[in-house]
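User: Here's a protein and a ligand (zinc ion). What would the complex look like?
Assistant: Let me lay out the input and then the predicted complex.
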Amino acid sequence: MHDAATVRAQLEARLVALGARVDDIEATQREPLDDDFADQAVARQDDEPLDAIESAALDEIALTRQALARLDAGTYGVCTACGEPISAARLQALPVASLCIACARGAER
Ligand SMILES: [Zn+2]
């Protein structure tokens, strides 16, 4: 059985960390490009992985917010597909999990 207060604290800490990461990326992307052409090319090349990191962080923020909403609703730790409890080991490994292991495996197929 999970402890809702502990899970909430974990998820909220994760949201803060992810939010800070997104802010950092956006601040980096807002920095004016250097006048030097070579530097500009490098700066533009660097944008792409940053975008990927940012979109991964934004995805995780969305999942984390959904997990917090399920905590509020009292449905946290219950599979959203089949309604069975999600195993404690799975929730520990993936606190934002919304599917039990069987449904997650099914969804991958
Ligand atoms: Zn399920």
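Summary: Helices lie at 4-30, 37-73, 88-93, 101-108.
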